[in-house]
Amino acid sequence: MTTITEIKPNDHESEVASNGYLLSFIVLFIGLHLPIVNLIASVIFFAANRKRSFFIRWHTMQVMFSQLILVPFNSIGFWWTIHILFSGSIFFSETPISSSYIAYMITLVIFNLIEFIAALYAAVKVRKGIHVEWFLFGPLANLLCKDKSLAQATT
Amino acid sequence: MKPIVHFILFIALFFLLWLGLSRINWMQLFHIQEKSTELESKLSGVIWDAYSEGAQEIHGTPANANLSKLVNHLCSTNQIDTTKIKVHLFKNDAINAFTLPGGHLVVYTGLIHATDNESELAAVVAHELGHYKKNHVMKRMVKEVGLSLLVNISAGKSGAPVVQKLVSMLTSSSYDQSMEKEADLMAVDFMLKAHFNPNAAADFMYKLSADESIPQQLQWISTHPESKERAKYILDYIGNKKIDAMPFFKKEEWDALKNQ
Are B47 and B166 in contact (CB under 8 A)? Predict the structure, then answer.
């Protein structure tokens, strides 16, 4: 994770961009059970802010990519759990609980926890107007969010 | 280029962490296996007590020894731990055999009388061993009764009628189609390895489903529906497999079983 201080957003931009990260906490408890909810929420948030300043668009896009990439992994964990629970029981079923399943869920928790902490850190920094670029999701946002012409224009 | 490299790193990191963590035996660490074994063991005791009460078990006869000899042979040729199988012979005219939790394999004298040769008896025993090996009894109980009720039963919190109902279900109704098929096909493999003729499994089913003179007591076949269809897929499965059948019982051993 890197912080760049070149971009100077105004207070309103910082607040909206920071809200994008906070949104992932609000839907966290629903998203843990139904991972697609997180993705839908971040896509809606991005769509609602897509014509706003570069700073806002860039950060909502970073949040959206973080959700987009985690959703397949979370969904596998979610449906694996459902399959175990509904195919008999956790002990005696065609797909009982196994070390592989537990290892997958621990991996999932670690990755989601890292994302959670990173989002918390980014929300605080972005609220202060500091640009924070994440590993993987930052370069992706850089790739798709190049148009700086709208910066400061629509806020 | 940077996003692609990051993406590959991200995926690699996820799978490496997963694979690394999978090497830890979490089942043992959290005592999950012990808990399920403990539940099965407790249930086994409760169910066996309820079933054997009032039933007429035969002990210490040559028939017992011969039946055990057959079961041990099928187990030892198919990597099944014989010490975990408890063979029981019950005096009952019903044509029935079944597996109960805890490795109790029950055979009725009526079933032995209905078989024409050792391969037919081996087919039924092999089928029940298939249910045992795949742990179908526990899977079925959990599916039909629910884990919470089973935990209550194992802890002695459920009344005798509930236990009796469970016993009745286990002894007089069939498993679902997929489990029956799995046990049937496994029985074919067991029989081939133990040098029995697996065609006897199909013959036995055809014979009993066609014989209208034994209606009421035909439990094993009536609890295993669509017998002709099963006989057909058994024959299909045998196909061109090499059958190396050898006589198992001496004449006096087979007679002792039949005359019990």
Answer: yes
Q: Give the type of residue at B222.
A: S
Contact assignment for B138 to A73 by CB distance below 8 Å? no
> pLDDT per residue over B165-201, tens digit each?
888 888 877 788 888 899 999 999 999 999 999 999 9
Contact B1/A at CB under 8 A: no
DSSP 8-state symbol, A49: T
**Contact yes or no for A145/A60 (Cβ under 8 A):** no
Predicted model pTM: 0.66
Rounded Cα gap, residues B22 and B74, in angstroms: 35
Q: Report residue A73 as tokens.
A: 């992994």
Residue with tokens 């005096």: B91
Question: Does the distance separating the beta carbons of B3 and A99 come in below 8 Å?
Answer: no
What does the alpha-carbon distance between residue B204 and residue B256 come to, in Å, rounded to a whole number? 21
Please tell me if residue A2 touches chain B, with a CB cutoff of 8 Å: no
Of A90, A91, A103, the CB nearest to B22: A103
Q: By the CB < 8 Å criterion, does A91 face chain B?
A: yes
